Amino acid sequence: MRIRLVLMILAGTAAANSPTSAADRTVFLYDNGSQQAALIHDYANCWAEYVDGVDGYRFVETNRSEGVVELIDPGRDVGLRLHDRRVEIRLQGAKTWQPWGEGRWIEKGALPRSIRFQPTDWKIRLAYFLPTDRQPLDDYERRVRVVMELVNDIYTADFQAKGLRSEGLPFEVDGRGRPVVHLVRGSKPASYYNFAPEFDTTFRHFDRVAEEMPARIGSPRRHMIVVFPETYDAGPAPVEWRGSVGVGTHYSADGGLAVMSAWILRDEFCARDLEGQKRYLRDATPIPGRTAFGTGRANSPRFEFIEDGYGATAHELGHALGLPHDNRSPDFLMGQGFRHLGENYRTPEGRKRPVAFSPENTRLLAASRYLVPGVDRTDNIPPEARVRVEWRRGRAPSALVAIRASDDRALRAVVLVDTDRDTVVGGADLKGRSQLLTHRISRRLIVDRNQPRRNLFRLLVMVIDGGGNIARIESTTPW
Asked: Read out DSSP for 262-318?
């Protein structure tokens, strides 16, 4: 946190373009001598903070007058008051304001070139990431579009089956109505991102790709971005390809980032249209020398790789939209169900249970700004909750969870996650602005006989409001 910044009044064009009315005050620029930074009004009551060209914290405007614009970062409980030539700050837990520094109101057109501000628009951005030692696949734009067409089909079909209204995934499109696929050229060779020869497949790989997403595309804090990096290794591997990565992270009601390795764009797995891709999902042609993750069979059939890769893309996008893992059923998409995605595209006679989102994850999606028309995008204050867990012993031991939830406008749902086992264990709908809910969790749902006995029960309570804001409250209880 930059508490001791000494901010300097900016001169030159900034002074010439300083707004005069309260309504025109949408960009506040400051400089600490080594980094230029700005607070920029985005939409409704939301503001974005840029430091040295990087999109950082999000703020919500709580008050505006002729003399001051007041902002708060609800997640950190940090407030700012922007005056004509100075800033005050209220630190977390404090009630008083103190001087923070100096700055100046300017017009958006006077922003430095280093600050590439992209307004929030609730359009999903797609990117194809290329290290310096890789060449792009032929027709990579069409390949990426086919992947996301299938992902969109998965989401919309599940919503329709549950009677929920959705217009599908809203992509950023070009003049012909096709999803835009941005080509992003990395600054390093593939080994820098995949950590060869150790081959990291988790967050270190994800972070290095994420760090090079250019501001011209958007910010994961305020935009939903799906990236396909050409960072996997083409050589032999015990399972699929080494250096593969599949990770999704949720940042806010407006933003998230999903990364899925570009091996799924290869000719063996990617058709050139949606119907061709559905046929591939029924194609058992062996892929010589490769083993799919789902079954571990050598020379695995084509459809198993597609289930793994395309299903994982839908799964990681779910994480970017705020969904937790749910391993209670083999058919849940946010568990391992995505590896059986082909069930959704087989004939009714040969079909088993379709892969779907669990009821709890459906509750979260039903308040998504990217999927549901009518979600209140002007509601940018997350809900609050207090959680208490008590153990009930006896013949059927259980955890009794008491949740007192509140929101300034409207509550929507609560989801309970056992963080040690990394799975949803319960949830419910919520209504009104305040609600007391009790939920009983059977101990058999949170005890894994294959794992050593734990002395603590770690519970994550996710509360979502009518604006799609998710509050996360952690509770740790001895048993």
From this structure: GGGGSTTT--SSHHHHHHHTT---B-TT-B-TTT--BT-BHHHHHHHHHHHHHHHHH
Any idea what the Cα angle at residue 252 is, between residues 250 and 257, rounded to 5°?
A: 35
Number of domains in the chain: 3
Which residues span the domain enclosing 413? 384-478
Cα 293 to Cα 306: distance, rounded to the nearest angstrom: 11
Write out pLDDT tens, residues 419-442. Answer: 999 999 999 999 999 999 999 988
Q: Could you give the CA distance from residue 215 to residue 68 in angstroms, rounded to a whole number?
A: 29
Whether residues 191 and 103 share a domain: the answer is no
Residue 381 token pair: 């204050």
Give the Cβ contact number of residue 451 at 10 Å: 9
Q: What is the pLDDT of residues 290-332, one digit of tens each?
A: 999 877 889 999 999 999 999 999 999 999 999 999 999 999 9
Would residue 312 count as lying in a domain?
yes
**pTM greater than 0.70:** yes
In Å, how far are 32, 33, 57, 100, 377 from 5, measured between CA atoms? 6, 9, 16, 7, 32
Q: What is the DSSP string of 6-19?
A: ------THHHHT--
Inter-helix orientation angle 140-161/302-320, to 10°:
70
